[in-house]
Amino acid sequence: MAKTKFPEGFLWGGALAANQVEGAYLEGGKGLTTVDLLPTGEKRFELMLGKVDSLRPMEGYFYPSHEAIDFYHTYKEDIALFAEMGFKALRVSISWTRIFPNGNDEQPNEAGLQFYDDVFDELLKYGIEPVVTIAHFDVPVHLVEQYGSWRSRELVKFFERYATILFERYKGKVKYWMTFNEINMLLHLQFVGAGLVFKEGEDQNQIKYQAAHHQLVASSLAVKACHEIIPDAKIGCMLAAGSTYPYTCNPEDIYSAMEKDRESFFFIDVQSRGEYPGYAKRFFRDHNLNIQMEPEDEEILKNHTVDYIGFSYYASRVTSTDPEILKQMTGGNVFGSVENPYLEKSEWGWTIDPKGFRITANQLYDRYQKPLFVVENGLGAVDEVTPDGEVHDDYRIDYLAKHVAEIAEAIEDGVEIIGYTSWGPIDIVSASTGEMKKRYGYIYVDKDNEGNGTLKRLKKKSFHWYKQVIQSNGENLEN
Ligand code: BG6
């Protein structure tokens, strides 16, 4: 494998989300979030799409976020392991309802604020830079009940207040921020992305794009507050990325691939360039969508654009306009894709496309000309623990080595990339399925899909591999 060169100070590390690791779902004064209502099994998908009949956990279901991997209590031990790997950065998210249990309380909850102070202090003790996502898929349930979540303009105000409290409290500790995790997920998993619950017969597009507008304005207001309160901080957007390939060179397929990409770029176009692109306005017209915008919105979006483009990359996507080809679909981070005959898939049907990583990074940089931050990438796989307590996860090393090598190529291409935080450096609850058995970690956690296990942590083979990668600043990717 070719020697790779990464810039000095490159932010190597891992990425987590509060609801997938913390557990302690009602401890320390925390309020209920939408993720706390997502059980494992069949029901989960229905709910994630916004077909929600109860806004309370229901009898007879298992809710993996309630305990997760208990990071709320084990963060010191876990951070020590990240430090042992040499992490330069750890991406975490803050749970909105730890800070404001109802989402819109008059005063923040001190116990919640203190918890993240403790986490940041622990990271800084080891020289690990905290990278903080303000909202990672968890909307306060109270705001869903009272306001219909992001369909209401009120949420903009509540989010701005929440973000402002965070900037004020953590201004001395956190220099890298992101507003909404995978903001484009709102179009695919509406309950997850924006806490939207639909009633029969509603125009879902109207509601989704109205909610999107609210999130975009809220994001810009958070950028504004961040720049005012922490002038030396960087605040980014976060896109679930992965370029869409046309199945053939038929111009219809090419156009369809462009449209698919624009469905996602739309969000980042607004967050990074500061205005709605022409194709989005046309989409609104063609679909008779009437998006309510306030007179000040144009100015807010224009003047408070993001400093960097955070993105996740797991897989590329393929589209076609041929109904026969469209039958050959595969999964992949919720974005349905036609199967790519040139590529292999993970055990969960996600296409494995390292070259696509370079393509995606180049495409994003060409489009935005802003630094990129890879804040998620990894392989969800089943791991076996040997009788002597080892996990030989060569498949994970292979996946990561090939992807990191392509990031190095992108850097050689002139793409500015400030860091790489792989997803789930310790095994965590899967966002899409709620499973524990879909593991991404360098550190194994003894827990199964039903919640059984000691929660004991074990270093996998990839733990030692990633340590070597970081130590060599990406030069040594050998297994
Ligand atoms: C991203 C999310 O979509 O993909 C994470 O930001 C998520 O929260 C990750 O965990 C991997 O997806 P999954 O479904 O394998 O956990």
Set out the fold topology.
Blueprint: E1 11-15, H1 18-21, H2 42-48, H3 71-85, E2 89-93, H4 96-99, H5 110-125, E3 129-135, H6 141-147, H7 154-170, E4 176-180, H8 190-194, H9 204-229, E5 234-241, E6 244-246, H10 251-273, H11 278-286, H12 297-303, E7 308-313, E8 317-319, E9 329-330, E10 337-338, E11 344-345, E12 351-352, H13 354-368, E13 372-376, H14 394-412, E14 417-423, E15 443-445, E16 457-459, H15 461-471
Parallel strand pairs: 1-2, 1-14, 2-3, 3-4, 4-5, 5-7, 6-8, 7-13, 13-14
Antiparallel strand pairs: 9-10, 11-12, 15-16
Helix pairs in contact: 3-5, 7-9, 9-12, 13-14
The protein binds 6-O-phosphono-beta-D-glucopyranose.
6-O-phosphono-beta-D-glucopyranose binds next to loops.
Task: Please characterize this protein's 3D structure.
- There is one protein chain.
- The protein has 479 residues and is of the alpha/beta class.
- It has a single domain, classed as TIM Barrel (Alpha-Beta Barrel).
- 39% of the residues lie in helices and 14% in strands.
- It has 15 helices and 16 strands.
- The strands form five sheets. It has an eight-stranded parallel barrel, surrounded by five helices. Strands 6-8 form a two-stranded parallel ribbon.
- Helix 3 runs parallel beside helix 5 and helix 9 crosses helix 12.
- The radius of gyration is 21 Å and the shape is globular.
- It starts with 10 loop residues before the first strand and ends in an 8-residue tail after the last helix.
- The mean pLDDT is 96.
- Bound molecules: 6-O-phosphono-beta-D-glucopyranose.
- Its EC number is 3.2.1.86.
